[in-house]
Structures are given as C-alpha cells and as structure tokens.
Design goal:
Elements lengths: L9 H19 L2 E7 L4 E4 L2 E11 L4 E10 L4 E7 L6 E2 L4 E3 L4 E12 L12 E9 L5 E7 L4 E4 L8 E5 L1 E9 L7 H8 L10 E5 L2 E5 L9 E9 L12 E3 L2 E3 L8 E8 L4 E6 L4 H11 L1 H25 L1
Parallel strand pairs: 1-12, 2-13
Antiparallel strand pairs: 1-3, 3-9, 4-8, 4-10, 4-11, 5-9, 6-8, 7-8, 10-13, 14-15, 15-18, 16-17, 16-19, 19-20
C-alpha cells in the first residue's frame, strides 16, 4: 500500500527554517516594545488611577536611551502627575505634561545599557515611568491611551542607532458612577505614606565645549522625584533661603565657571521630602581663602598677636623714654 500523504523533502524544511530565521533576524533584531499596564480596565468618573509605561525587548538587545511621547484622550482623561519611582531611566529632564494636546513626554538614558528582563524577573524591572490620570465627569464610554510614532529608542552601540519600535496601547472603560468626594486614591495615599527622602547622590562636574556643567541624578522609590534645584555660593551655607534655589535639570550649566563656589543640589520627591548634596570648590586657592575667612579662631589669634605686639612696643617705648 502506498502512502497518499504528500511528504515535504527534508532539505526544503531545512531551507525554510533558515529563511524564516533570517527574516526574523533582519526584522526582529533591534525591536523594542513599549506597552502600558493598569491595575484594572474600568474606572469611574473622577477616579484617579495610574498607568505604568513599560519596556520589552524583542529579542534581547541593548539600548541606552529613550524618548517617549504618550498620548491620552484629553476629552475623557486629565493628566494629574507623573511618577519616576522605580524607573530604570536616568531622566535627562523632568517629564512634561502637555494638557492642551493630551501628551506626556519624557526622555532618559540607561547607563551601561538595558538588555531586557532577567530570568526569574517578576516584571518590575522594566518600568520607565508611571502616568497618573483622572477620569473627567462624563457619560459611559471608553478612553484610549497610546504612544505617538515620534517616540524613539537608541541602541547602546556608540553610534546612536535607532531601534525598531512597536507599541501596545491601552483602552479603558468609563463608568458614569461618581466617586465619593473624600475618596483617597492610590496616588495620594502613596505621597501621604512617603516619609523617606530621595536616595543619596553625588553630583559630578563635567566639561563640555569648554564649559563646565553639573550632572546629577537620584531615585525615590515611593513617590518619585518631583524636581531638582541648585544654589551656588562663594561661601559655605548652613541655611539657604527658599527663593535662592534655582530649579534645574539633571544637566546644569554652572554660573561660576571658575569653579570657586560651593554648589548645593536639592532633590525633592512628590511628597516634598528633600535630599541635599554638596560639591566643594574645585580650586585650591578658593579652598584656602575660605578656610582663612571662615575660621574666626585664626583671625582672633592673629588679632591678639598684633595687639600684644603693639602693646609690647608701646610699653618698651615708654620704658626707654
């Protein structure tokens, strides 16, 4: 009896495998997926909720920079805040909420690059940031949260090569039911419970294009960083007036290009907890001047020596007279 089933030759199967693998390689390599996660898919009018922006590499690649544009339906939703807590990014600038156009923009780098979630990773190490949104009062319906196509990621190859991006949007359902006016949403509770200041950090002075900049960054695991502020002073301070601080990004052009000042950097989280780092003057002349100026004991001793010498001269002059 003959077998009526058509048999595909082994060499054809092998050839197809090679071709498919090759096509996957040239189309899938450098592929990066941006996707969104929320704790549920249905919310009530006026309810505040969070949406995690996450990153997935397909297949495993190495990226070190991202710029993300997140769009939300501004007729249905309002962007309340943005949290950087537990993000794998070092943010280049503070995330920007454009309420008029319904867009949240943020960008950052990943020092050393990111190659994807490790084996056994529960999925929490691929967080880029968290958008805090509120449902506007309206009828039952839906709202779409998605990525704009001008979002981009860059490979850690030293050449700034763009990776191929894919996007997974998020659609939520809206219920007309009102929330209680005293409802404490998760975001407000997170800020209320956050009593810990941002993590310690060490700002660094770098030279670029013959100008000195200050680079700094830190993390806050609960509510995330709200802002940074910088203060430069020729004298060391124990207290800085609120109005003297200048809001700054993570790359700050120093006013004192002679590096003779004390530089104070303040990191403030969303719960208003603060962490201050200090950079000392970088010139030996300034340091010596400061020590002499600030050490009042030295001045007192010098003054006593001078007065003693003058008194002795006066006594000696009167004695021989």
């Amino acid at each position: 009896m003959t077998n009526s089933k058509f048999q595909i030759p082994n060499f054809i199967i092998l050839l197809l495998t090679i071709v498919i693998g090759f096509l996957f390689t040239i189309t899938g390599v450098h592929a990066v997926e941006l996707y969104l996660e929320s704790s549920q898919f249905e919310y009530s009018s006026n309810e505040i909720f969070s949406v995690d922006i996450r990153l997935n590499l397909i297949p495993l690649e190495n990226i070190n920079a991202l710029e993300v544009y997140l769009s939300f339906d501004r007729d249905v939703l309002e962007a309340v805040d943005f949290s950087t807590a537990n993000s794998i990014l070092t943010f280049i600038k503070n995330p920007v909420i454009d309420e008029q156009n319904g867009v949240i923009n943020f960008s950052g780098i990943i020092p050393g690059g990111y190659t994807g979630r490790l084996a056994g990773d529960p999925g929490k190490s691929n967080l880029l940031g968290t958008a805090i949104l509120q449902v506007k009062k309206q009828e039952n319906g839906t709202a779409l949260i998605s990525f704009l196509t001008n979002s981009q990621t860059f490979l850690n190859d030293g050449q700034g090569t763009k990776a191929i991006l894919t996007f997974l949007p998020l659609e939520i359902k809206i219920k007309k039911k009102e929330m209680d006016s005293d409802f404490l949403n998760d975001w407000e509770k997170t800020k209320e419970d956050d009593k810990t200041p941002p993590e310690e950090f060490i700002p660094e002075i770098v030279e670029m294009e013959n100008r000195y900049f200050l680079m700094f960054n830190t993390q806050d695991k609960q509510s995330g960083i709200n802002n940074y502020a910088v203060y430069e002073s020729i004298r060391k301070k124990t207290k800085i007036n609120l109005g003297d601080w200048q809001l700054a990004e993570s790359l700050y052009l120093l006013k004192d290009q002679n590096l003779e000042s004390y530089i104070y950097v303040k990191a403030v989280d969303k719960a208003s907890n603060e962490r201050i780092a200090i950079v000392n003057p970088q010139t030996q002349t300034q340091i010596k001047w400061y020590v002499l100026y600030k050490n009042y004991l030295i001045w007192v001793i010098m003054l006593l020596i001078i007065l003693s010498y003058l008194s002795f001269r006066l006594w000696f002059y009167q004695k021989i007279k």
